[in-house]
What does this fold into?
Amino acid sequence: MEYVTLGRTNLMVSCSALGTKLLQDVSLEDSVEILNTAFKGGINFFDTSSAYSGVEEKIGKTISLAEKEIEVFASSSSNDFEIQRAAALLPLRKNLILSSGTKAKTAKEASIELEKSLEYLSTDCIDIYHITNQDYLPIPGTDDGLYNEMLIARRSGKIRFIGFTTHNLELAKEAIDSGLYDVLRYPLNIFSTEEELNLIKQAEKADVGITAIKTLASGKIENVPIAFGFLRQNAKVISVWGARNIDEIQKLLYFESNPPNIDDQFLAELEELKNQTKNQ
It folds into this structure.
């Protein structure tokens, strides 16, 4: 697993993050297994949202179960090495980077959602908390009070960094240039335009972390190796990949260990895939 620094946050995160939206339709038991498998494979960045029904609770339950298992194991074993090994293989909160967010339209709504997220995730601090907006960029002093609420949350230690999520290219550019946001979540994949891909350079210049969502274009891209290799060309982009079962997680971990070679054949297949999709 490769790790990079996420912009000015100085958080060292796995190049692949686990997107958890698909866990909405997965049982608690299976979700715990998926989350554990991802973490044991080296993925230390879990990306979620208060808008994902029941998902934050599943992540929180996984963390709680891991903590309890370590406590039980430690109390029943005198072998320090085994205790340390067990701890290293479980997603304890201190070893995870958690990203969540809100679609709230007012400061009050955002405050309520943040408190619920902290409870559901079984944590007292979320590493990155995103404001999601497709219409405008929340800034200090606006009537919605959203950004000011994030500043209050950060000062109180409930969040560490402020992120912005949007599918609006102009808002994404504005967020980077504003200097107000530490991380940008934006759809990036093989169908992204040159202007969209330029966000990567813009973000790097501003020392803003960037996480790519919609990496498979909401299921339109079936060739995962091509999608994976395309995004991995950009070392500073954290790709968010969803999974609904163990097989999908294991495939992701396989590509991490065996990334596609970016050679002439890869580039030719990439162009062919783009053209095929355009003609559909």
